[in-house]
Amino acid sequence: SLDVETGEVLAMVGGYDFLRSEFNRVTQARRQPGSAFKAFLYGAAIENGWTPTSTVMDSPITMWDVGSMQYWSPKNYKNIYKGAVSVKEAIARSLNNAAIHVFLNTGIDPTIDYARRLGVRSPIGRHLSISLGSTEMSLVELVRAYGTFASGGELLQPIFIRRVVARNGKVLLENVVLNELDAPADTRTAAEPTGPPPEAAASTTPPPAAA
């Protein structure tokens, strides 16, 4: 939990017993964010001409993913599809396949760039499933990125320790941050494979542009 005005960490639970494990799951673990990644997908889309009232199809789709070199058929919860919906409804209902259609229209690179500008530093693979949160990142990265929305676009620098003062009043440490969050983004990705097989070409056609 971050204070979006100051960047100060208000609460952090990295584990339940430090004596049994010193591993901090907030700063050291990288896990798949799942649908939490959709905020970056839709943010990039809005920067590229989509609006909350734009229409997108929420429908089944099968694609050849050159990143994973296999066919991919994402599904909605309980395999229920809404058809033509607004972007606003797609976000509110967290519709997977609507998000995929928006992602295909916006593109992988603009989406990754948007996540980077919000402070994500972990490696992000250039494959289609990142749209549904298959890439891994730390919890502190994710909270920081969401804090950028809440702060009105200002990239936060999480402050873990405000101040350490000696008994004589001398300040020993002040505004302690996690240096890794200042490091350049890790741009490592899997080796780029060749394109899709000819019979898969039709499945990769993006949907019409936003209304």
The biggest beta sheet reads:
2 strands, antiparallel
Measured on Cα atoms, how large is the radius of gyration? Answer: 20 Å
Q: What's the total helix number?
A: 5
Strand content is: 5-15%
* Distance separating the two termini: 37 Å
The count of DSSP E runs of length 2 or more, i.e. the number of strands, is 6
In order across it, which strands form the biggest sheet? 1-4
- The assigned structural class equals alpha+beta
Average pLDDT taken over every residue: 87
Broad shape: elongated
The low-confidence runs, each spanning 5 or more residues with pLDDT under 50, are: 190-211
What is the H/E order?
Answer: HEEEEHHHHEE
Helix content: 10-25%
3D architecture notes:
- This protein is an alpha+beta fold and 211 residues long.
- It has five helices and six strands.
- It has a two-stranded antiparallel ribbon.
- Strand 2 and strand 3 form a beta hairpin.
- The longest helix is centred in the last third of the chain and has 12 residues.
- It is elongated.
- The C terminus is likely disordered.
Blueprint (SSEs and pairs):
Elements: H1 38-47, E1 55-58, E2 63-65, E3 70-72, E4 83-86, H2 87-93, H3 96-106, H4 108-117, H5 139-150, E5 159-165, E6 171-177
Antiparallel strand pairs: 1-4, 2-3, 5-6
